[in-house]
Specification:
With 283 residues, the protein is α/β, with parallel strands linked by helices. It contains 10 helices and 11 strands. 47% of the residues are buried.
């Protein structure tokens, strides 16, 4: 039976799309170093199906995850897709091995990468396609223009950006209607706070990557709050994110169904003002 837990934190808009504010990040549906297939592909497909059962209707991936593996698993597990499911992908990196990431913002690379994502995801149009990262060897405007041109060609519905500064966000918004920003952000890393403030003011969805700092959110304050609320430290980390801004769209990822259930349940965890003050004072 479907249990719409992911809807507990409300919704956020991405252009003309509305999704629940607890999404799923599909980077971990790969091998070590985000390279090659996962150790248990069938468990990963179960994770994706379970996410949808829990009301997750925003899944974030990228052509570079695997590379290609994450997108392929999403299609294998969920195609034909539910009508309300938004699949976001990214382009702008190439991979040469485990934990190796090389920016490539050349327009010709972007075009081929997005066409490849369309094939793997079995889509005619990508709902949200994000500029994965700026490439210092390519003017950022040229990279963003490639996404805009693909949008005009009908292959991309909406464009987002990732790993951007305030200035890069300004440049991108001068070229295309940006609907989302995906930057690193969690309770111990708030360097993107100025970008988040712009997103809140302009009603752009803010998608924090590394939302749990992959297990590093285990300080004494987080442990205390978790015990007090009867939840896990990971749930505390996610529950801290949600009230930071109404445009916040966390995308915790995992390759285990048990961890998925735990993460999504954080949508219904409410921290007190005292909890938040204690966490932020210790972070």
């Amino acid at each position: 039976m479907t249990n719409q837990i992911a809807s507990g934190a409300g919704t956020v808009t991405l252009g003309d799309m509305t999704v629940n504010r607890m999404g799923f990040g599909a980077m971990r549906l790969t091998g070590r170093g985000i390279w090659g297939p996962p150790a248990d592909p069938e468990e990963c497909r179960r994770v994706l199906r379970r996410a949808v059962e829990l009301g997750v209707n925003f899944i974030d991936t990228a052509d570079s995850y695997g590379p290609h593996i994450s997108e392929e698993l999403i299609a294998e597990a969920l195609h034909p897709y539910p009508d309300d499911l938004v699949i976001a992908t990214k382009a702008g990196f190439t991979r040469s091995g485990p934990n190796r990431w090389e920016p490539d913002g050349r327009p010709e690379h972007i075009r081929e990468a997005i066409k490849g994502s369309l094939r793997r995801l079995r889509l005619e149009r990508i709902d949200l396609c994000q500029v994965h990262t700026p490439d210092r060897k390519v003017p950022y405007a040229e990279t963003v223009e490639a996404f805009r041109d693909l949008q005009h060609a009908g292959l991309v519905r909406h464009v987002g950006v990732s790993n951007v500064s305030l200035e890069q966000l300004r440049v991108a918004r001068g070229i295309v209607d940006v609907v989302s920003v995906q930057n690193r952000y969690n309770i111990t890393d708030r360097a993107s706070e100025p970008v988040l403030e712009v997103c809140a003011r302009e009603r752009l969805a803010f998608i924090p990557w590394y939302p749990l700092a992959t297990g590093k959110l285990v300080g004494e304050a987080i442990e205390r709050v978790a015990r007090r609320r009867g939840v896990t430290p990971a749930q505390v980390g996610l529950a801290w994110l949600l009230p930071r801004s109404p445009v916040m769209l966390p995308i915790p990822g995992t390759s285990k169904v048990s961890h998925l259930d735990e993460n999504v349940a954080a949508a219904e965890v409410e921290l007190t003002d005292e909890d938040i003050r204690e966490l932020e004072a210790a972070a």
